[in-house]
Amino acid sequence: MAGGPTTSELVVAAARAGHVAQLAAGYRSAEAMVDEIAAVRAAGVEVFGVNLFVPNVHPIAPDDYAAYARSLAGDAERLGVAVDAPVTEDDDAWGEKISALAVDPVPLVSFTFGLPDAADIARLRAAGALTAQTVTSRDEARAAEAAGIDLLVVQGAAAGGHSGVWAAGARPAERPLPALVAEIAVDAPLPIVAAGGVASASDVAAALAAGAQAVAVGTALLRATESGTSPTHRAALVDPRFRETALTRAFTGRYARALVNHFVAAHDAVAPIGYPAIHHLTRPLRAAASAAGDAERLHLWAGRGWRAAREAPVGEILASLIP
Ligand SMILES: Cc1cc2nc3c(=O)[nH]c(=O)nc-3n(C[C@H](O)[C@H](O)[C@H](O)COP(=O)(O)O)c2cc1C
To answer: Where are the beta strands (DSSP E) in the chain?
Structure first.
């Protein structure tokens, strides 16, 4: 979980409790990723993963970008920031991160937002890493297998945060996680990790019964003692004023599931497709909202099972999810 919730402490505590946890390399420099890997190893943990954002630019027309920036002016003014960055379409330091992980491999490297080149996958596998690919459909699963991926992370639409869907502007299919897992498991020879909306031991049991070999959670850990979730985000997760989640492009120009707050209500309908440009455009506004404790203008990532997220040590939360 990039953007703060995943800390090296969270990964270490989950690993000590017998789970495989992943560091979030998204939005970070390659150096920061390497430092976090060192911190996990220094704590004596050897089995863990690193999650990367695959460069998959969804370009945006300058006029659409400018129009969306104008529509954010009221919120920006209220927070005392400017929302006027030029269009930025970076690759999240992909090449540096792959090189660092090829030189000094970790046991598991996972990808979201798109499929890496087969050469990059092969490079990491040759270095000794297992590779995992987030997929949201059967077509994506087949392409991942053909590219040499070792295991699939099948992500349902109930998942908190960004959808890993590959196509520009596509909305992930709305279907229960067990149904999606079963559809992909039918002809996928690769092991499946199921993710999205898992909030109880019975959700885990249903995903395993549908054909998954393992289950992953995100939202369930947002209030964990060891997570780095901001105080404003933590408080919003138990604030009765937030009553539902929605898949929205309003924050980053790519579909992500968040609690419905003022920002979503005001901007979702006009939000363009445009990742990572819209992510960079709204970033100062979101940073100011976080600093000001303004939950109405912050991206409150949450999966559909958010009400079950508890404040407890990660080991305790994960133990309660075992069927
Ligand atoms: C706050 C937050 C941040 C996330 N960041 C990432 C990320 O950096 N990379 C990624 O592959 N998935 C990310 N996800 C999605 C998770 O990997 C996973 O698919 C999702 O949390 C599963 O659904 P759940 O939140 O309902 O448990 C994030 C999810 C949340 C809630």
So the answer is: 22-24, 49-53, 108-112, 130-135, 151-155, 161-162, 192-195, 214-216, 245-248, 256-259
What is the Cα–Cα distance from 24 to 162, expressed in whole angstroms? 13
Report the atom number in ligand 1 closest to the C-alpha of 306.
26
Q: CA 261, CA 247: separation in Å to the nearest integer?
A: 12
Give the DSSP H/E element, type plus range, for residue 20: none
**Ligand 1 centroid distance, CA of 63 (Å):** 31
Give the per-residue pLDDT at 268: 97
Token pair recorded at residue 172: 């992930």
- Mean pLDDT over residues 20-31, rounded? 97
At 168 the pLDDT is: 78
Question: Is the CB of 2 within 6 Å of ligand 1?
Answer: yes
Please give the mean pLDDT across all residues of the chain.
Answer: 97
Supply the pLDDT for residue 169: 85
pTM: predicted TM-score of the whole model, two decimal places? 0.98
* Closest CA to ligand 1's atom 5: 1
Tokens representing 46 are: 């050897």
* DSSP string of 234-299, one letter each residue: HHHHT-TT---EEEESTTTSS-EEEE--HHHHHHGGGPPP-TTHHHHHHHHHHHHHHHHT-TTSS-
The CB of 49 under 6 Å from ligand 1? The reply is no
- pLDDT tens track for 95-114: 999 999 999 999 999 999 99
Looking from the CA of residue 217, the nearest atom of ligand 1 is 27
Q: Give the pLDDT confidence of 31-83 residue by residue, as tens digits.
A: 999 999 999 999 999 999 999 999 999 999 999 999 999 999 999 999 999 99
**Is the Cβ–Cβ distance between 155 and 195 less than 8 Å?**
yes
Which residue, judged by its Cα, is nearest atom 4 of ligand 1?
1
Domains in the chain (CATH in brackets) are 1-55+91-227+306-323 (3.20.20.70), 59-90+243-299 (no CATH)
Establish whether residue 26 lines the binding site of ligand 1, counting it when its CB lies within 6 angstroms of any ligand atom: yes
Which positions ≥6 away from 209 have C-beta within 8 Å? 178
